[in-house]
Design a protein that fits this description.
Blueprint: H1 7-27, H2 37-57, H3 61-85, H4 92-108, H5 112-127, H6 129-138, H7 141-160, H8 174-198, H9 200-227, H10 234-259, H11 264-288, H12 305-329, H13 334-342, H14 346-358, H15 364-389, H16 394-418
Length: 419
């Protein structure tokens, strides 16, 4: 027999658990607690009850009384803390009390996911108090300025930019351009942190491996730029770029196989050829190169806004070439379109290939060819970008990527001829 649990009871249990989660973090404090587990659980649990009464009785003013109660409790907490701690007047607990009250209201309106997500973020912020303060205290003025600039780009500028094309041809979307620049800045920041923590060569290697799966073109631009600061970084950056290429190949093939398992048998050979060559080239660099703690790169600033702007401009140019190629060769078929699209987003090409395969527009061989051509096009974009930024990486990064691209093209041609 299925028991019909009242919705209010479910909301109450979720609210109490959410408040208790935040209160539990407060309980573990060694200092005197002014709003612990029971207070937070009861306050949050009162939220759904208040919403239910306001809804059923048609008295929304009750919600106002609830907010006044939360404000009074928050203010009272501040006063009590001032009496006990003297000059040590902190507002974290008071703000937390009011946030918990708001979470109770959200849960009362059925916004479970939003409320629990905010609660988890709140707990992390509270639990990492010492580490966050230590991190902020260790920042230089330049690092703090750069962090604030990045935050302004992500949380202020990005949301307000239009999501529609600003040019008459419907190509350039400012939000997409800024997103690419943000990727560049985040990758630069990651490399900055990892090189400090792991050393120069290892830090760049981890950066390439992780960044390649997110945006390999941005990773290529960042790694190439770093080599312009020091010739000692060329080998390490080339190795990192090959790892980024490997991540990109694995990501794109993984997308295709996960969305259409039937393609696994057809795509494993080109994947093995391209991935194997990439791994072999990276292994040669690792064995012949020297792992260095200090690559001679200036680590005084996490990232460069000027370089991010330049790479964003390069992204726009590649985007224009991609669209132009699609218009020029679009009549040739899906393969030409896949290559043109891969110049900007090879992952999107993988999704498109699976889509046209699953709806029966093309066979498995053509779908696999589209995925591989998207990867080859992505390699072409990175090769041009790296050559433009620093041709010193030609021998150790560009030549291996050319060979990987040729291997992909050969396997595509062979598969199309055989089938």
């Amino acid at each position: 027999m299925v028991v019909d649990v009242p919705e209010l009871l479910v909301q109450l249990l979720v609210a109490v658990a959410t408040g208790a989660l935040i209160g539990l973090e407060r309980e573990r404090r060694e200092t005197r607690k002014f709003a612990g587990l029971r207070t937070m659980a009861l306050l949050c649990g009162a939220g759904p009850i208040t919403v239910e009464i306001a809804r059923t009785e048609g008295q929304p003013v009750i919600l106002g009384f609830y907010f006044l109660l939360a404000l009074g409790l928050a203010f009272g907490t501040t006063v009590v803390r001032a009496l006990y701690n003297g000059e040590d007047l902190g507002f974290t607990t008071s703000v937390t009390v009011f946030v918990v009250a708001l979470l109770g209201i959200l849960i009362g309106y059925g916004r479970f996911f939003e409320a629990t997500s905010i609660a988890i973020v709140t707990v992390i912020l509270l639990a990492e108090r010492e580490r966050l303060h230590g991190y902020v205290d260790s920042l230089t003025d330049e690092e703090l300025r750069d962090s604030l600039t990045l935050g302004a780009l992500v949380f202020i500028l990005f949301p307000i930019l239009p999501n529609e094309a600003v040019d008459p041809y419907g190509i350039v979307v400012l939000r997409d351009v800024l997103l690419f620049a943000i990727f560049v800045l985040l990758i630069e920041f990651s490399s900055y942190v990892l090189m400090r923590q792991l050393g120069g060569s290892k830090g760049l290697a981890v950066t390439g491996l992780l960044a390649g799966g997110a945006n390999s073109l941005a990773a290529a631009g960042v790694l190439a730029r770093l080599t312009t600061e020091s010739d000692e970084a060329v080998t390490a950056a080339s190795f990192a770029l090959l790892l980024a290429t490997l991540s990109m190949i694995v990501r794109n093939v993984g997308i295709a196989v996960v969305l259409a398992v039937e393609l696994a048998w057809l795509i494993w050979q080109p994947t093995l050829a391209m991935g194997g060559l990439t791994v072999a080239a990276a292994a040669v660099l690792w064995r012949t190169g020297e792992t260095k703690e200090d690559l001679g790169i200036d680590l005084d600033s996490p990232f460069s806004l000027r370089s991010a702007a330049k790479f964003a401009l390069a992204y726009v140019l590649i985007l224009l070439v991609s669209v132009g190629a699609g218009e020029l060769f679009g009549g040739v078929g899906l393969l030409a379109t896949a290559f043109a699209g891969g110049l900007v987003s090879s992952a999107a090409v993988s999704v498109t290939a699976v889509t046209v395969f699953t709806d029966g527009t093309v066979g498995g061989e053509t779908a696999v060819a589209m995925v591989i051509l998207g990867i080859v096009a992505s390699l072409c974009s990175k090769i041009v970008l790296v050559e433009f930024v620093n041709s010193e990486m030609r021998k150790e990064a560009v030549v291996p990527m050319v060979l990987v691209g040729v291997a992909g093209l050969v396997t595509v041609l062979l598969s199309l001829l055989v089938f």
